[in-house]
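Saturday, quiet lab. Running sequence design on the C-alpha cells for the scaffold JK sent over.
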C-alpha cells in the first residue's frame, strides 16, 4: 500500500527519494509525488502512474534540495490522479505532507476548516490534515512539532505522516499510528520510510517509530520523540540485518520468480537452529514461555488474510492432526466485526508476512482486549504485529518484494509444522517414531523443494497451453485443499484469470456443472491421504471432458494415465506435502501471467501490505 520516503542531510534529496520510491513500488500504488526544498520555497511534483512517470514529468523542473519527502499513493479517498497524489500543501503552501492510512473523521474536520475559510484542491483526507495542522500552528503560534502533536489529538484513524515546512531545511516531523515508519540514522542525515528497503543502502541504524509517537527529525540534532499525549521517549536504535542483495532481483526477470527459487534456502533459514541436531527436539525460542499455555490450550484461533489465511488452514490440519488441539481459522476482517466469543484461555495466533495488515492487527487487538494470549507468525522483523503479540515465531524468509506471496507462504507452513510438532511432542499426542520420521522428512524438505523446482521447464510448457483460458478450477483434499485455494488465488492475482479452489469431493455438489472441454482443472493427487478418493474425483472430471493438470508423486502410474499433464513431486508424508505441492502451482501461475503479458510483481489494484481496512 502507499509508500513513504524522506531524506534530510547535505546530499541532493531527489535521487535518494526516487530510488527509495522505486524500492517501495512493490507495495502497490497508482500515483507518485515528491516535495523538495532548497531555500525558501517548497517544490511539489506529482504525477498519476508510476515513479518513472514522475521522473519524466520532473525532468525539466527544479529538483534541487537537501530535504525532501516522497510518496506512492494507493487511492482511498478520491480517484488516482495528479491532484489527489501526495504531497499535499497547506492553504498558504508553507507546509507539505505525505500520509499513509485513513483519517476517518476528515469530513467533520473539513467542514470546520471550510467555515474558517480553507479551500481544498483535492478529494483527499490528507489535504484536510495538513490544513488542520496549519490552522492549529497559526492559532497556537507554536512549532510545527507541537502543531502536529495537537492536530493528531483531533484525528481518528490510522496514519504514518511526514511533514516539512518552508524555510526549515534541517528538519521534518513524522508520526505514526497503525501504519509503519522507520527512521534511518546517518551522520548528520536522516532517512525515513514505510519500511527499511529504501534505507538499507545508506545506514543499518534504524529507529522504529511506535504507534502514537511523533518524531522531530533534525539533521543537526539527536532524534526527539514524544507521544501524542506529550510524554518524552528515548529513541532505541536497532541494527538492520537485511542485506541489499535480498531486495534486488539478482538476475531474475521478476522478484516473484526469484522468490520462488529462493524457497529451498528460505525454508532452511526457517528451520535453522530450530531442530536440535542431537536430540532432534524442536526449539522455538520465541514461544518458550508459552509452551505450557499451548500444550493446555482448549482452542487455537488463527486469524489472517489472503495467502496467510491459507497457511492458517494448513495449520488447522497440522494442529488438529498432530497436536490434537481444536483450531478455528478466521478471516481477520470478519472476525473483528462479528462479536466473536473469545475466552481468556484461548490462544489467538495471527499469521502475516508483512506484520502490518490492518485487519489482522485489529483482530489481534480485539483478542488482546478480551484477555486471550496473542501469538504471531510474521516475516517482517519489528513489524506492528510482531510487536503487539505476546510472543511469536519469525519465518525468516527474507524480504518478499513480489506482491504475490510465495516464499512467505511456504515458510509460514514450515513454522506451523514446527509448532505442531513441538506441541504434539510436549503433549505426547504423537508417537516417538512418527515424530522422528517427520523430523527426518522435514530436514530433507529443502532438497525436495529444489527437486520440484527442476520441473520449471515442464511447467512453462504447460502454461503455454493454458495461457488463453478464462477459468481454472483447483482441486485438493485434506492438507492439500488449502493448497488448491492458494493455487487459485495465485493465478487470479497475477494473471487475472478467474480461478476457484475446491475440496475435490465437493465438486459433485455444484462446481462439476462448470466442467466441459474448455475447463482446465489442476488437481493435487499425491500418493498420500485420500489418494484413491482423489483418483475417483479425477475420473469424474475426465468423464466430463475437463483438461487435467495433476500434481502427482514421483513414479505415479494411475493418475498419469488419466491426466493430460502431470508434474511430479518427491514422495513425502501428507502433513508435509503442502510444502512441495504448492511450488508447481506458483510456477504455473507465474508462467501463465508472464505469457499473458501481466505485470507479475505489481498486479493491478493490489498492494503488498494492506494497511487500510
Ligand atoms: C498474497 O499473494 C496476497 N498478496 C495477499 O493475499 C496477502 O497474503 C494478504 O494481504 C495478507 O498479507 P500479510 O500476510 O502481509 O498479512
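Result came back. Writing it out in full:
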Amino acid at each position: 500500500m502507499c509508500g513513504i520516503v524522506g531524506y534530510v542531510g547535505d546530499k541532493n534529496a531527489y535521487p535518494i527519494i526516487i530510488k527509495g520510491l522505486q524500492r517501495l513500488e512493490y507495495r502497490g500504488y497508482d500515483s507518485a509525488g515528491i516535495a523538495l526544498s532548497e531555500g525558501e520555497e517548497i517544490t511539489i511534483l506529482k504525477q498519476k502512474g508510476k515513479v518513472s512517470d514522475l521522473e519524466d514529468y520532473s525532468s525539466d523542473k527544479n529538483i534541487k534540495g537537501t530535504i525532501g519527502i516522497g510518496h506512492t499513493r494507493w487511492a482511498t479517498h478520491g480517484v488516482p490522479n495528479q491532484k489527489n497524489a501526495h504531497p499535499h500543501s497547506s492553504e498558504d503552501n508553507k507546509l507539505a505532507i505525505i500520509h499513509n492510512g485513513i483519517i476517518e473523521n476528515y469530513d467533520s474536520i473539513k467542514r470546520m476548516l471550510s467555515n474558517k475559510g480553507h479551500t481544498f484542491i483535492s478529494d483527499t483526507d490528507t489535504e484536510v490534515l495538513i490544513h488542520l495542522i496549519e490552522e492549529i500552528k497559526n492559532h497556537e503560534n507554536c512549532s510545527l512539532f507541537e502543531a502536529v502533536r495537537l492536530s493528531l489529538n483531533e484525528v481518528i484513524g490510522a496514519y504514518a505522516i511526514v511533514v516539512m515546512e518552508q524555510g526549515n531545511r534541517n528538519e521534518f516531523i513524522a508520526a505514526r499510528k497503525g501504519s509503519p515508519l522507520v527512521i534511518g540514522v546517518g551522520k548528520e542525515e536522516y532517512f525515513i520510510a514505510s519500511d527499511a528497503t529504501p534505507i538499507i543502502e545508506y545506514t543499518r541504524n534504524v529507529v522504529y517509530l511506535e504507534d502514537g509517537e511523533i518524531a522531530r527529525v533534525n539533521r543537526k540534532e539527536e532524534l526527539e520523540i514524544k507521544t501524542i499525549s506529550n510524554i518524552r521517549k528515548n529513541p532505541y536504535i536497532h541494527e538492520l540485518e537485511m542485506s541489499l542483495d535480498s531486495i534486488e532481483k539478482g538476475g531474475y526477470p521478476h522478484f516473484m520468480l526469484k522468490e520462488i527459487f529462493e524457497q529451498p534456502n528460505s525454508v532452511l533459514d526457517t528451520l535453522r537452529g530450530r531442530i536440535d541436531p542431537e536430540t532432534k527436539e524442536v526449539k522455538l525460542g520465541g514461544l518458550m514461555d508459552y509452551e505450557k499455555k499451548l500444550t493446555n490450550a482448549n482452542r487455537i484461533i488463527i486469524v489472517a488474510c489472503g495467502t496467510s489465511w491459507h497457511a492458517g488452514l494448513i495449520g488447522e490440519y497440522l494442529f488438529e492432526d498432530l497436536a490434537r488441539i481444536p483450531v478455528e481459522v478466521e478471516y481477520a476482517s470478519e472476525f473483528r466485526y462479528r462479536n466473536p466469543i473469545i475466552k481468556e484461555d484461548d490462544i489467538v495466533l495471527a499469521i502475516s508476512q508483512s506484520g502490518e495488515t490492518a485487519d489482522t492487527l485489529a483482530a489481534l487487538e480485539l483478542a488482546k482486549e478480551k484477555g486471550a494470549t496473542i501469538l504471531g507468525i510474521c516475516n517482517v522483523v519489528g513489524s506492528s504485529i510482531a510487536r503487539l503479540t505476546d510472543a511469536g515465531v519469525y519465518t525468516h524468509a527474507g524480504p518478499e518484494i513480489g506482491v504475490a506471496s510465495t516464499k512467505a507462504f511456504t515458510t509460514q507452513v514450515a513454522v506451523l509444522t514446527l509448532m505442531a510438532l513441538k506441541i504434539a511432542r510436549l503433549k505426547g499426542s504423537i508417537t516417538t517414531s512418527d515424530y522422528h520420521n517427520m523430523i527426518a522428512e522435514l530436514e530433507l524438505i529443502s532438497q525436495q523443494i529444489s527437486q520440484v523446482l527442476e520441473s520449471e521447464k515442464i511447467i512453462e510448457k504447460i502454461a503455454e497451453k493454458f495461457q488463453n483460458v478464462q477459468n481454472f478450477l483447483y482441486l485438493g483434499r485434506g492438507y492439500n485443499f488449502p493448497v488448491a485455494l492458494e493455487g487459485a488465488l495465485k493465478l487470479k492475482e497475477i494473471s487475472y484469470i478467474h480461478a476457484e479452489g475446491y475440496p475435490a469431493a465437493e465438486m459433485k455438489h455444484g462446481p462439476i456443472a462448470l466442467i466441459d472441454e474448455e475447463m482446465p482443472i489442476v488437481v493435487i493427487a499425491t500418493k498420500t491421504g485420500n489418494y484413491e478418493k482423489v483418483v475417483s474425483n479425477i475420473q469424474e472430471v475426465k468423464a466430463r471432458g475437463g483438461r487435467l493438470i495433476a500434481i502427482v508423486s514421483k513414479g505415479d502410474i494411475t493418475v498419469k494415465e488419466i491426466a493430460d499433464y502431470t508434474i511430479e513431486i518427491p514422495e513425502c508424508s501428507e502433513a508435509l506435502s503442502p510444502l512441495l505441492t504448492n511450488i508447481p502451482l506458483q510456477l504455473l501461475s507465474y508462467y501463465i501471467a508472464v505469457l499473458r503479458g501481466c505485470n507479475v510483481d505489481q498486479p493491478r489494484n493490489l498492494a503488498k501490505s494492506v494497511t487500510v481496512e
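Notes for JK: The longest helix spans residues 432-453. DSSP finds 19 helices and 25 strands in the chain. Ask whether to fix the surface positions before the next round.
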